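User: Second chain of the day. Same drill as before.
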Amino acid sequence: MKVVHLCSVHPAFDVRIFWRHCRSLAQAGYEVVYIAPHDKDEEREGVRIRAIRPASGRLDRFRRVRRQVYQAALDEDADLYHLHSPELLPYGVRLKKRGYRVVYDAHEDLPAQNAARAWIPGPLRGVVGSYVEAVELRGAQAMDAVCVAHPTIVHRFPEDRTVVLNNYPRLDLFPDPADWPPYSGRPPRAFHVGSSCNRIRGMPHMVEAMGLLPHGLDAELTVVGGIPADLRPELEAKPGWARIDYRGALPFDEMVRAMLQARVAVLPFLATAHHLTSYPNKLFEYMAAGLPVVATDMPHWRELVDEVGCVRWMDPERPETMARAIGDLLDDPEEAEEMGRRGREAVEDRLSWDAESRKLIGLYRDLLVRPPRPVP
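Assistant: Same format as last time:
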């Protein structure tokens, strides 16, 4: 059976799409194709990547990339298509009208996400959010099934065919704890990773917090990911920037190696409407790597992991609380290591991708033995 995953936004090696969905399905014996923005066709981990030239901007993405992704999808003539971009939903409906099985994957709370987009003028964000929500829900009604990345948004989609696939980490992508660098031998280093290290994800506050740490601590913060070009000068002007080891984007395995050189991880997302309904990948990845986490005090994050005892909660808009939490953990490596151990155990017990992958494979198995759902 051939299954095709489609995306017009995320990169070829996106953590959720490639490393979780596609790789799990390939290991289960499916022929898996991932059509996504990339510089070349290639095959990795049993997944064939069909490359679409990346967009030069938002307009190019809407005008060219979406159309080329759809045309490539038709060329594949698959048994099932899985959409990972809401802007591809109109093309998903077209695939449905051609008689194909189609699944939509809602990665985020889309209306809340649009309400926080800086490039949308403030007065228009509510209107844009409502319009996008209507388009998403109407498109989802036509799908054979919907997958959601967060249980907080499951109520927005058809109850009878929506499955929660949490963004829990694949433990096989992390070295065995016996092979980790000894915690006691690591330098006083914090760690943060993000596809976009921007304002709403707390990057300026995190740099400020590093500047508030005592000079005698000799601490650094490794940052992996992308920093917006217009934010970089502001960050470099802050005293804390002298303590930032900025690595840029790294392949997943290199990112994990960098993570395992740190003693503490930082998750300083601001309390936007979008973040108040989502669970970030990095929270669970930090736990899988055995790192104690300094994180924003979000009610739904606290509800999920507070009992584990692996997080120090703080307010990112008060950088002194972040600095205090980071400093306390760097000053007490024994407590920090114990917190990290508890986080890793929680991932092994109940927060890993193993159970989620079984749900995904079960969904595919059910869909592929029955005819496609008629378009309403």
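The mean pLDDT is 93.

User: Great, on to the next one.
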